[in-house]
Amino acid sequence: MTRAAPELRTFLCRSDNIGVLIRDPASGACAAIDVPEVGPVLAALDAEGWTLTDILVTHRHGDHIEGIPEVVERTGARVIAPEKARAAVPGAARYVKEGDTVTVGGLSAQVWETPGHCADHVTYHFADAGVAFAGDTLFTLGCGRVMEAEPATLWGSLKRFLALPDATAVYSGHDYVLSNGRFALAADPDNADLKERVAQAERLAQEGRFLIPSTIGEEKATNPFLRVSEPALARSAGLEPGSDPEAVFTALRAWKNRF
Question: Do residues 223 and 213 touch, judged by C-beta distance below 8 A?
């Protein structure tokens, strides 16, 4: 018997955080990916008539966890957090690390440690559902800022996404799409697919919507930080075509920091 696909809802929190709910329709179990802000998460639950059972924490930064205590008080949801974020997320029901599995009802996700943006960052990959919650590691048309590591560490994390099926939906932790698109066009100006995606993002923004989730296939075609093996990106980064992808990534990330 084929299990029903999960139900997913995205919504804005704070100014540019993305809130996400994933629900298993067979069991009714529902998880929030982080809790950037209490009100929007509770409002989304109320609008759908869903009951929150779990909170999956991607990393310890305040704009991803500050709403957890109140939402737990209101809902009784269990918190699952990265082992390396134990000090910042006290009282979680479970702390997870690379290779662990978490479940939301009948839905199952593998935990990836994806450091670079911060040391404790994890990604939740629901392989059977074709969904990855990338937090602040991989964004639509961009990637996270390197904060607690060398750029090579974040590049190592991003490479894992390249191995996923193209249809995999990627949910990122922020709506930085328009600013990422401006940089992507500067770095990859002759990419027709990129031009089309940026135009789509601009249309959606005018309607109060955003280009999240994306898919791995779309990101491989348009995200400069996943295209560092392409000669055009090496040239834009000031390097020779055929340069080591890690070097190209490092140069592009440094340029983005100044952009």
Answer: no
Q: Is the pTM of this model over 0.90?
A: yes
The C-alpha angle 148, 119, 117, rounded to 5 degrees, equals: 60
Closest CA to 219 of 255, 174, 254, 177: 177
Under DSSP, the state recorded for 33 is E
Helix H or strand E encompassing 82: strand 78-82
Q: CA of 28: how far to CAs of 52, 106, 131, 132, in Å?
A: 9, 9, 18, 20
In this predicted structure, what is the pLDDT of residue 98? 98
| pLDDT tens digit sequence for 20-49 | 999 999 999 999 999 999 999 999 999 999
DSSP 249: H
What are the C-alpha distances in Å from 32 to residues 13, 38, 86, 94, 173?
Answer: 12, 11, 18, 15, 12
Do the Cβ atoms of 125 and 102 come closer than 8 Å? no
CB 139 within 8 A of CB 225: no
CA distances from 154 to 8, 15, 81, 117, 246 (A): 27, 25, 20, 7, 10
Q: What is the token pair recorded at 26? A: 């067979």
> How far apart, in whole angstroms, are the C-alpha atoms of residue 82 and residue 119?
10
Q: What is the per-residue pLDDT across 189-198, written as a single tens digit (0 to 9) for each?
A: 999 999 999 9
